[in-house]
Amino acid sequence: MGDNRNMFIAVALSLAVIIAWQFLFIEPRMEAERENQRQAQIRAEQTAVTPGADPAAVPTPQTAQGDIPAAPAVTGTDGVPQPAALPTAPGAPTSRDEAVSSGQRVTIDTPKVEGSISLAGARIDDLRLKDYHVTVDPESPTVVLLSPAGTAHPYFAETGWV
User: Fold this and answer.
1) What DSSP state is assigned to residue 157?
2) How far apart are the C-alpha atoms of 158 and 123, rounded to whole Å?
3) Long-range contact pairs involving 76-81 (C-beta distance under 8 Å, separation at least 24)
4) Using CA atoms, how far apart are residues 91 and 85, in angstroms rounded to an integer?
5) DSSP 3-state assignment of 84?
6) 130 with 141: CB under 8 angstroms?
7) pLDDT digit string (tens) for 78-133?
8) Residue 121: which of 94, 97, 103, 98 has the closest Cα?
9) Is 158 within 8 Å of 121 (Cβ atoms)?
10) Does this model's pTM top 0.85?
11) Are strands 142-146 and 74-75 parallel, antiparallel or unpaired?
12) d(CA 16, CA 19)
C-alpha cells in the first residue's frame, strides 16, 4: 500500500512541475512571439505598395546578406538587350556524371561494388552494385545504391561532424 501512495505522490508532483513550467516559462515566451508576429504584420501592412503610389518611394526590406546585385545586361547582335544566361539554380538537379566528376574523389572498385568517395567531407555518395541490374534483362543498368548531392535523388552516407 505504501508503494502505491509514493507512486501517486510522484505522479502528482511531476504533474505540478509540468503545469508550473507551462505557466511560468512557456506561456510568456509564446505571448512574446505572438507580439513579435503582430508587430511584423503591422510593419508589412505599412510598407505595402498601394495602387497608384510610387513604388520607388516605398522602402524595401534589406536581405540578410545585403543588396542582391542585378544580373548583367547582355546585348544581342542586333543591339537589343537580352537577359543574361543565369547559372542553374542551387535546387536544380544535375546529372549524376556531372556531380561525380566535380571535385576530388577516391575510386572504389571491388568485385561486387564500384563507385567513389568524395574527399570533401569523406562522403560516400557514389556506389553501384556490379552484379545486380534494375530489371531482369542483363543489359539494363546496374542498381545504384548511393547518389551525390545535387542529383535528382541524392542519397549518401557521412560520418563525423556534419
Assistant:
1) B
2) 5
3) none
4) 17
5) coil
6) no
7) 555 554 443 445 557 778 788 888 878 888 899 999 988 888 777 788 889 999 99
8) 103
9) yes
10) no
11) unpaired
12) 5
